[in-house]
């Protein structure tokens, strides 16, 4: 079952799509990766950071893997694994609540500046912070949104579990897992980098060694990790990016319209699951052409005469159909005439009696 907002988006898109667009030519793509973002137990119904609609994504993502596996050269899961006293958890700070914003200062190389009067008292270990001279202005100010504790490293059951949802279809031999979020002082954002883009994950190396040039993104959450992954993938790495809208959910539903507007503006394709039927791997371009071009497939047409031969074949078929229709009509008329004559003879015999 799809989330109601994503389903509405796809229904509206389908309703107001011009007929010529619905029947558009297939889209041919290169080497692709399906990236399944943060489908972890903490975000499911019994999780401590439950995101509404997250449980509905399991069937949607499984369907994508079942019916469109031929599109993907590799499937990659991203998996958050946070330490208990993480910079994004509200209990890390005194008197804060989920959804609150704290302002944090980082050095230019991404190290967290130690406590200062404008920040609520925290319990982040000192070994993960450094002394900073904030007066010099050689720092970066980051507004950190606070969340419920979730996806705790090495916790594999219960409401804080970081385990990938077991109902998801997986291939333990070929699927790749990219772990992020394991630093106390950095929040995980893009699937490529931790916050501030100075600590890379292994995602780019996994894609590069497979010569991937096209990404399909699904999972959690379109207004957090997914949109930031899209931004970096396009602006910094020049990937072709597709976001499958009805296989994602937002963390905050009020931010979804912003995502629907911003993602295409970034240069990504915001599509629905049904659009995947129109996408083909480039390696099948010749097969599709041969399948569509019967004359070319049988090899009987001289080179350059394919269009003429196809037209002649069409005309011959129409002529045969017209001839068959005429013969059928003549046979029907003859039968009706015979039946009428027989009926008249029978009536005459009855009158004589």
From TrEMBL:
Keywords: Hydrolase, Metal-binding, Pyridine nucleotide biosynthesis, Signal. It holds the Pfam family Isochorismatase. One of its GO terms (biological process) is pyridine nucleotide biosynthetic process. Residues 292-353 are annotated as: Disordered. GO terms for molecular function: metal ion binding; nicotinamidase activity. It comes from the Eukaryota. InterPro entries: Isochorismatase-like_dom, Isochorismatase-like_sf, Isochorismatase_Nicotinamidase. Pathway: Cofactor biosynthesis; nicotinate biosynthesis; nicotinate from nicotinamide: step 1/1. Residues 153-254 form the Isochorismatase-like domain. This is nicotinamidase. It comes from Biomphalaria glabrata (Bloodfluke planorb).
